[in-house]
Amino acid sequence: MNKGELVDTLAKKADLSKKDAKLCLDTLTDEITKALTNKEEVRLTGFGKFTTSERKARKGRNPQTGEEIQIPARTVPKFKAGKNLKEAVK
Question: Where are the domains of the chain?
């Protein structure tokens, strides 16, 4: 399912226009992004938890040349599925 299909489903189930459904979805993703940017946790009970994780700087190799390179430290988003989601997918 892609974003357009999700907007269509949301519009149909919530009896919204596609424009309003897209606005809802965009607002949700924007707010999750803002929270993660501020290193806050987002919990959707039963669905899952969005967090961030710090990756340390490390050495790697350029696969084309074999040259050793330094990979910088960075913050990455993480998602951990909740119990209801895990059970549904099982």
Answer: 1-40, 42-90
